Amino acid sequence: MTERTPLVEIRNAKKRFGAVQALRGVDLAVYPGEVLGLVGDNAAGKSTLMKVISGAYIPDEGEILINGKKAHIANPEDSRRLGIEMVYQDFALANNLDVAANVFLGREMVRWSLGPLKIMNKRAMEAGARDLIDNLKIDIDSVRLKVENLSGGQRQAVAIGRVTAFNAKVIIMDEPTAALSVAAIGKVLDLIRELKAQGCAIILISHRLEDVYEVGGRIIVLRQGRKVADRPIGEDIHQFREEIVAYMVGAKDDFSPEAATV
Amino acid sequence: MDIQNAVTDTSTMLSRVRSRSPGFLRARELPIAIVFLALCLFFWKEKPDVFLRPANLAIIMRFVATFGLLAIGELLVIITGGIDLSVGSMTALTGVLVATLIMKGFGAVPPFDALLGDTSPIAILPAIIVVLFFGGLVGLWHGLFVTKLHIPPFIITLGTWLMARGAAAYITRGYPIVFPSDSAFLNLGQGKVTLGEGANALQIPNMFIVLVVAAVVVAFILNATTLGRHIYAVGGNTEAARVSGINVDRVRMFSFVASGMMGALVGILLASRLGQGTPTVGTAYELWAIAATVIGGTSLFGGEGTVLGVILGAAIMGVMQNGMVLLNVSSYLQEIVLGVVLVIAVTWDMWRRHRQT
After folding, report:
1. Which residues in B224-249 are b (16+ Cβ under 10 Å) and which e?
2. Residue A50's domain is classified under what CATH number?
């Protein structure tokens, strides 16, 4: 690794739910402008780890550092304020609202306040959404289209675009290509590359190793709540696949050689 | 796959056209408005000398005011994914409460009573405010049960449906509380504003003016404020709203409080119109209000619906009922017809929705 300070670092994260130890002391660091793949079998702890970073869960042990400084994240608002944003698997979009409304959902631009009522600045939000869509080179004709009229790929693009509207430094994407057609997947990967070029750090959780290979610079494999691999992506795709699967099933383990089953 | 894409492309194209066309041509309300106008035309042709007479129009307007106000409250609750079955019984209870308060001289406190006497409009204001507040409290009660105890809205408002009417009957021991004929309170529900001169001067009942004011306020909230947008978001995708930082509980509470206050408002207006607070008023009104809301294009699944739509829905029901009375249609048949209209409206809406996806 370089001497750069990680944008977000989590050290020794531990989390248990009743009898289940979901995280057994995981370290993760992500640097600006990198795409970090996070893979592992079901129940490996990927979602739990991301929920800890995004403030949805409080870890039993462990600390989170933002730009090298210790941060206290007690809820999702805290992590959002620190620039950590999450794109959910089902996009978390309101289908009955249009693109502009979804981009600014929960953070609407206010023109003026009438007591407890806040009057929205719809024109500014439409312009803002339009700029965002154009900047990210997303192919949507009008930001006044209702989300329910968009294709799966366009919806995912809106969901991703949404988090970038708010100075996200780290974007966590949970299975962004899971429900998409081949063409749409290509578009989402382009979007990820665009975001990376703009300096964001992206943590990409995916079952599709080919996607991680395509855009990722580094990969972390979790298995049963522990980190078993943390390495750059460099070799050819087949070798990559074989190695990663070996990590996922426990045949290889960089952090505890004696725990490997082979 | 090809057909699916074609359908998506077509509806996207339509949506594009709609989103760029002027507001009044937007898809949802236009068919409802056309049906309304068609009905008006039909009944005017059938009974040209009666239908458009000011007195008859005033009757329609009072009907639309009564159910339109209740429907506006239901609209807010239904958009967020709930339902309010209590409003009919609440009109009875609040009517009885406002009558009890005014007749017992509530609000006629010194020095006002000496100066103004209890037939003055100002004297009745405290009673009205207290009862409106009570309606809001009942709404808050519903909201708390739904958001904190996770009781389904259907159940908790059904409880009030039973309790409110029972409470109204209990308070009055079954007898109506009658206002004196010179009470200022009667002006609210029985008064009207006259526009123009002579026999054909348009009479606009005060109740209808109340409806227009309420409609403008609620439409403004829904269209122009963050609260309104959050209401639609909570109904469209509650989880998306939650992770976006919207206080879902607070939004739902607001909708129930608003619906409760609408119930109280209508109860007050009806008590004024009838000249008495009685526990028998408003039976099944909640269902008529829901019907008006649905005919007006509101989806019972939440996330969709407009104020203009529900008022047109109430107007369609009002014109239909009025027209059938003028045509001497049996009142039993009237209810059948209104039921048929409701089923047609819902089916058409589902078909339209299905066609889009």
Report:
1. bbbbbbbbbbbbbbbebbbbbebebe
2. 3.40.50.300
pTM as predicted:
0.85
Answer whether residue A60 is part of any domain: yes
Reply yes or no: is the peptide bond before residue B111 cis, omega within 30 of 0: yes
Q: Which chain B residue is nearest to residue A141, measuring alpha carbons?
A: B16
Residue A235's domain spans which residues? 8-94+166-259
For residue A103, being part of any structural domain is answered with: no
* A-B contacts at Cβ under 8 angstroms: 92
Q: For A114, name the nearest residue in chain B, comparing CA atoms only.
A: B225
Q: Which of A101, A141, A151 sits opposite B16 (nearest CB)?
A: A141
Total domains in the fold of chain A: 1
Q: Is residue A112 part of a domain?
A: no
Q: Following DSSP, what letter does each residue of chain A receive, concatenated?
A: --SPPPSEEEEEEEEEETTEEEEEEEEEEE-TT-EEEEEESTTSSHHHHHHHHTTSS--SEEEEEETTEEE---SHHHHHHTTEEEE-TTTT--TTSBHHHHHTTTS--EEEEETTEEEE-HHHHHHHHHHHHHHTT---S-TTSBGGGS-HHHHHHHHHHHHHTT--SEEEEESTTTT--HHHHHHHHHHHHHHHHTT-EEEEE-S-HHHHHHH-SEEEEEETTEEEEEEE--S-HHHHHHHHHHHHHTS--SS-GGG---
Q: Inter-chain contact A141–B235, Cβ cutoff 8 Å? A: no
Residue boundaries of the structural domains of chain B: 26-352
In a domain, A153, yes or no: no
Q: Do B232 and A94 touch (CB under 8 A)?
A: yes
State the ipTM, two decimals: 0.83
Architecture of domain B26-352: Orthogonal Bundle (1.10)
Q: Tokens 């949805």 identify what position? A: A56
Residue-wise pLDDT tens digits, B71-110: 999 999 999 999 999 999 999 999 999 999 988 877 655 5
With pLDDT > 70 as the criterion, what percentage of chain B qualifies?
87
**A91 to chain B: closest CA residue:** B240
